[in-house]
Amino acid sequence: xxxxxxxxxxxxxxxxxxxxxxxxxxxxxxxxxxxxxxxxxxxxxxxxxxxxxxxx
Length: 56
Description:
56 residues, two-stranded parallel ribbon, 2 strands, 36% helix, 14% strand
């Protein structure tokens, strides 16, 4: 994760579900604990999620 983030100017991590988001944020926070997450997290609505699980 750190190597890929260092290679690009504006890296962005895409996710489509709440489970994915929780795991990605957890791993990102561990990988970049000292400096903070250096990329955007972007939610893509694939249309398969229950309405209750979306951040509206």
